[in-house]
Request: fold
Amino acid sequence: MHVAIIMDGNGRWASQRGLPRTAGHREGAKTVDKVVEAAARRGIDTLSLYAFSADNWGRPRGEVAALFALLRRYLLSQTPRCLERAIRINVVGRRDRLAPEVLRTIEHSEGATAHCSGMTLRIAVDYSAQHSMLQSCRRMALESSIERSRFKEHLAEVDHAVTVTPDVDLLIRTGGEKRLSDFLLWECAYAELCFVDAFWPDYDELAFAEALDEFAKRERRFGQIGTPGRVPARVNHG
Ligand code: IPE
Ligand code: IPE
Ligand code: MG
Reply:
């Protein structure tokens, strides 16, 4: 089971309280802890969190700096907890535009948890699905045959993913917007979508459990004719 979350609404949460947007990001980091714990407890195999999009570079410098400071703090403080819970950390996205200290912290967290066989926690940083797909296409163009499986391998490599990324089963977006904002466009081909109004700092384990319960009730058909209680395998088109 692969759950992906677009953690949105930190800025509006803060503005509503007359606080700077960065206060919303700080509060949002607390929700990350809660949801990661809950996901691991519920036996989720892969959890992908959208932390910083390639387009988020367009925000004011101070906000960008605060977001990266929070990311570093999160990785430094949570790596020991992830180790305790056998959670493997994997930061996905571009790495060529990250500051050296951010890169060092990422490499440390990934190295320290590389042997963990529980949930994989993928944190998307400087991520753009369109950019990843374009890069993969550029690599494919240098090869003689064009295979779907090869494309997925390239995608994983481009994203610095530790394994070929499984398709997303459930995509949750907080903050009320109903869009994907360039997140996991390939992997979400058949994802069940769950949009919630709560701002990310107000989201919690209970809301996450509700999303999983709702997911369990959905009938996934993958283009075929449904048989209750049976999820059909996807047709293999090569
Ligand atoms: C999500 O919250 C966090 C990031 C995009 C980094 P926002 O900062 O987008 O919050 P809103 O959408 O402006 O409320
Ligand atoms: C998507 O949220 C990116 C993250 C949550 C990291 P944005 O707030 O950046 O996206 P838009 O601008 O609403 O599409
Ligand atoms: Mg937003």
